[in-house]
Each structure stands twice: as structure tokens, then as C-alpha cells.
């Protein structure tokens, strides 16, 4: 599977998989926190289902990463399986985008963050649809069929909140003000990503992805009279320097496994 | 001691016809279209399965059920049961018989997939599995399992679930 990958390309691919998996893991875990307390019963069902989807996507991506590392015979990776990658790293070893370090404080912030993330993720997946690394291209084809429902869901909510003057719109604007500066971190360049482009693993550089993402969401933001997220001021730490909010999520997410690491389920 | 003998492919397929996705028990995994390939050799059987949804929690249950059934028809023969994303499962893979069995069980069959479903495209297309009326509304694109959506029939006033088109 990895036969033709030189080590530098393989390392870059591993970072891309980790970034994507950690993004899906954090948004999925975060979405699951609405189970039981969403503002509408139908949203309770929807957020639980979305969370299940996203965590399933994270698992599939962690599994690809585990296979990549196993085939590379990396001694440090040892016997790391998907669960070990997901749960056995310290919080500072996680590689999700800074956008996902914000803890949504209300429903509007949850929907605003979902919209920013899902639209960026859609652009990222599109650039992987014809990836020369077939296992990723195959998984991405499947992911995109599911993610369209996520986009439909959150686009509907963005409209509902934006069109309702008063508290819904006020809360949405506050959330976009808070999240906007970090929105582009999902598509911030990864170290040595040129290796991925040259190997045909990604179709285009991150800079182009960000331009495509802005072009994709621009008409919606204009129609809803919402402020576009500003360009990323500084990509440094876009996927590190995690927040206290993430450390709380991490402690919660890893608590069961930490209670008995040798247990089988 | 059990001696392995090469099973007939027909017997293997008949065994697979007895396995269901526990979340869609009305039809077999063959009618569901998740069986991609079946290879029968002298000393082993290999079955490739396509996950319905990436995060479907029933995958391991399905794999165990397939292994159990294969062990019945081919005792002693090694069975590889693998999941693959080599091609995406789509709801278009559900057989005509499977669609009818879904409808008869009260679970709406999926509408044909297209590349860009919209809420407007999804909504009027779901016929009620109870009365056949097209006067139905989409209540929730997300249901009690990843593979189902929730609808309501305004003709017979029956809520129903439908296999979500992917």
C-alpha cells in the first residue's frame, strides 16, 4: 500500500491523516455533548447522529494512519492501533485545527463552528477525491456521501439563525466574531505539504484550498449579511497550543480508557 | 475432527442470505448490496463487505454473523471476512426485492441517489411505506441510526423512517 512512498512523503501523509482524524474526533466528541440537552428533540437526534458519523470518520482515518505506520515498520509506532492513536496521546500531542479548540458556549456558536468547519472540510475532501494514495481516495469517496447531509443540516441552521433578528442573530454574530479569526486554521498549510502535492496525494496546496473555501461560502455570507472570516493572521500554532477547553474535552474523552487501559470491549 | 471440503459457491451465498444488518433486519446483506465479492477456494473463503456508513456500529456484528454462517456451511474452512471502501456502498445497491421487503416492513426504501441532494430534492420523493402517498414531509434527515431519516405522512398521519439515500 505504501510501497512507492518515500519517507518524507509518508511523514507528510501521516500528518495529513492525523490532522483530518483529530478534527473529526474533536467536532464529533463536542457534538455528542448536545445529546439529551439540544434545544429541540429533533436536534437531539440529529446531533447524536452527526456525532456518531464524525467519530466513525475519525476512527476510519486513525485506522488508515495505523496501517501506514505499521507498513512503514516505524519502531516508535509499535503496535499503535486506532484506539491507541485516538486516546493515548497527551493533549499537546493532538493535531486538530485551532477552530476546534473553541468550546461552543451556546447553540448558535455550535452551528457557526459546524458551518465554518464543514464547509472547509468539504473543500479539503474535494482535493483528495482523486488522491494517488488509493486508500485515502476510497475512504474520501465514502465520507463525502455522508458529509453532504451534514452540510445540509448546518446550512439550514445558519439561515434560521441569521434571518431571525434579535437574540438568534445577535448570538450568531457574536459566535462568528469569536470563531472567525481561527476559521482558516482548518486549511492552514501543513509542514512539507509540497511533498503531498508532488506525489499526487493532494490535488492542490492549502493556499488554493482556502481561496476555494472563501469562494464557496462568500455568496452565503453575503446573502445572510454576515461578516466573512478574516484571513488567518498567523498560521503558527494552527494545530498546536491547545486551549483549556480542549484539555477538558480530552480529559472527558480519555477517561473511560484511562480507567482500565487493558480492558477489551 | 472436521475435514475441510470445498463448499459450493451457491451454498456460501445461501449462507450469506441468512445474515442481516441488525439495524435493517427485514432484508439480507445480499439484498442490502453490501456483499461486494465472494471467493471460494479449496482451503478458504473470502468475502468482501462494503460498510453502509463509515461509523456504523453494526459492522462487527455483521462480520461475526457472516463468520458463524460460513462456519456452518464450510466447517473447518478458513473464512476471511473483510470490510473495504474499494467502492462506496450506495443505497442504489439495494435490490428490487430488498426495496419491497423494506417497504412491507414499514421502512421506506431509499430514493435514487444523485450527486447533490438538497432538502427540496429529498422531501417530496419519499412515498409513505404504509399508504403509498407522496404527501410526506421530511421531519429529520438524521434518525435513530446513521442509515435512517425520519418522515411523516400527512395522508395517513403515520410517522415513518426511511433508508437514507447515500
Q: Can you put this structure into words, describing what you see?
A:
The complex is a heterodimer of chains A (about 260) and B (about 170). Chain A is mainly alpha-helical and about 260 residues long. In chain A, about 65% of the residues lie in helices and about 0% in strands. Chain A is globular, with a radius of gyration of 18 Å. Chain A starts with 6 loop residues before the first helix and ends in a 6-residue tail after the last helix. Chain B has a four-stranded mixed beta sheet with strand order 6-9-8-7. The relative contact order of chain B is 0.16. Chain B is α/β, with parallel strands linked by helices and about 170 residues long. Chain B has helices at about 10-15, 30, 60-75, 95-105, 120; strands at about 20, 25-30, 35-40, 45-50, 80-85, 105-110, 135-140, 150-155, 160-165. Chain B is built from five helices and nine strands; from the N terminus they run αββαββαβαβαβββ. At the A-B interface, α2 and α5 of A face loops of B.
The string of secondary-structure elements of chain A, in order, is: HHHHHHHHH
What is the tally of beta strands of chain B?
A: 9
Oligomeric organization of the protein chains: heterodimer
Biggest interface pair, residues each? A-B, 27 and 28 residues
User: Which structural class matches the secondary elements of chain A?
Assistant: mainly alpha
Silhouette of chain A: globular
Beta-strand level of the residues of chain A, as a percent range?
under 5%
Number of helices of chain A: 9
- Largest sheet composition of chain A: none
Helix content of chain A: 55-70%
Terminal Cα span of chain A: 29 Å
Q: How is the topology of this model organized?
A:
The complex is a heterodimer of chains A (265) and B (166).
Chain A: H1 7-32, H2 41-72, H3 82-87, H4 107-126, H5 134-163, H6 167-183, H7 194-198, H8 206-223, H9 244-259
Helix pairs in contact in A: 1-2, 2-5, 4-5, 4-6, 4-8, 5-6
Chain B: H1 9-16, E1 20-21, E2 24-28, H2 29-32, E3 35-40, E4 44-49, H3 59-73, E5 78-83, H4 96-104, E6 107-108, H5 119-122, E7 136-140, E8 148-153, E9 158-163
Parallel strand pairs in B: 4-5, 6-9
Antiparallel strand pairs in B: 1-2, 3-4, 7-8, 8-9
Helix pairs in contact in B: 1-3
